[in-house]
Amino acid sequence: MKPWHGIISDEEQRAYRAAGFGRPSGIGKRPALLIIDVQYRTTGTQPLPFFEAIKEFPTSCGDVAWHAVDNIALLLAEFRQRGWPVLYPHVAPKVHSEGGRLAEKVPAIMNVAAHGYDFVKEVAPQPGDVMLPKKHPSAFFATALTSHLIDLQADTLIITGCSTSGCVRSSVVDAFSLNFKVLVPEDAVYDRSRVSHAVNLFDMAEKYADVAPTHEVLETLRKI
Length: 224
What we know:
Layout: H1 10-19, E1 31-36, H2 40-43, H3 50-53, H4 63-82, E2 86-91, H5 100-105, E3 130-134, H6 145-152, E4 156-162, H7 164-177, E5 181-185, E6 189-190, H8 194-207, E7 210-212, H9 214-221
């Protein structure tokens, strides 16, 4: 069952099929894993229901984040074993002068405690991983991500992390626009809204990426 089952109507899905959307783009030969914003500020330091989690960090997505972390860990283990590249686009600590429109829309993001920017230990970076601090939703905007991917000769991106409707989606669209093949493990991304999570996964699946459960993505990777 897809995450958008019961949210996107059968009629709407038929409309996309009739128009020719949603065809698979497949996988290349040189994948790279992006782990976006999997920091304690988006997960909390322990699995808690949403309204409990935001008492620690207002930007937390609650316990759905920890389910995704478990699946990201499976993908990360496969990449570690195969010696494939892992890249960490992440929000850097905010200072007042960098607020801009984001601070106007989401003031809480400007007051995250320092330990909220730490990476979740279960999927934390290791020496040799590419670290990409960013100030905006897309992992590509004003970062060296494209340059790193060219240097790595990557042709396929496995995009995981937070949030499905924000930084993940904007990174997927930019990756697609740059002609990378894109896979989104539907249970290795997370969002504070179930509906927004589902609708954005559906839209990405129809237009920009192949969307599948982590176990199917792993099966695909193991065929390379």
